[in-house]
Amino acid sequence: MDVTVKKAARAVGFAARKLAFEAGQGQAAEILADYLAPHRGKALAGYMPMRTEIDPLRAMTAHHGPVCVPVIIGAGQALRFREWSPGCAMVPGEFGALIPAEGAWVVPEVLIVPLVGFDARGYRLGYGGGFYDRTLEALRARGPILAIGFAFSGQEMPEVPIEPTDQRLDAIVTERGLMMV
Fold first, then answer.
1. Distance, CA of 75 to CA of 159 (rounded, Å)
2. Beta strand pairing status for 90-92 and 117-118?
3. Quick count: other Cβ atoms within 10 Å of Cβ 163?
4. Are 151 and 115 in contact (CB under 8 A)?
5. Residue 9 carries which DSSP code?
6. 82 in Cβ contact with 99 (< 8 Å)
7. Closest by Cα among 157, 102, 97 to 124
8. How do residues 11-53 score in pLDDT, each as one tens digit?
9. What is the 3-state composition of the chain as percent helix, strand, coil, each rounded to the nearest 5?
């Protein structure tokens, strides 16, 4: 695929996300927490929101079970996940995302996945590093994984440009509700 196609789609996605962020996320975190409730006890990977990303922290805090956040180990590698809890010591990681200063490494069973854009087929447009695609592929090779895209409804695109390595999401949660794919 021509990289300029994804680059153009990312520009559209970032602009849509910025507008949606300014409007607020409403009850999105509560909708996400409700969706996660049947998965209590399972290891949940969330993320620390940056810039105009929708904020999953209330849903992460409400989860009954281990919670972790992604740590970028290096370019071209799958993510690893470090245990997180509200108030734990955080330090800047790659690209400025906060990561726990210390803690156990956790293998998640349920992942809240950030994104730039998504479509009704369940494909996501990320930042271009391929971290989540590699991570989901590796985790799915080990066993069942639930990957939930978390986004503003305004980030939906008619069709995300995809490549053979792109991993589909199992569901998408927005401030307007749940989309099963």
1. 27
2. unpaired
3. 10
4. yes
5. H
6. yes
7. 157
8. 999 999 999 999 999 999 999 999 999 999 999 999 999 999 9
9. 30, 20, 45
Q: Which amino acid is at 127?
A: Y
Task: Give residue 3's pLDDT band: very low, low, confident or very high (50, 70, 90).
Answer: confident
At residue 37, the 3 state secondary structure works out as: helix
Q: Are 115 and 124 in contact (CB under 8 A)?
A: yes
C-alpha–C-alpha distance, residues 26 and 31, integer Å: 10
**Pairing label, strands 117-118, 110-113:** unpaired
Q: Please, what are the domains in the chain?
A: 3-180 (3.40.50.10420)
Task: Copy the structure tokens of residue 81.
Answer: 């996940």
**Is 179 within 8 Å of 171 (Cβ atoms)?**
yes
Q: Is the pTM of this model over 0.85?
A: yes
Q: Is 121 exposed, middle or buried (0-12, 13-18, 19+ CB in 10 A)?
A: exposed
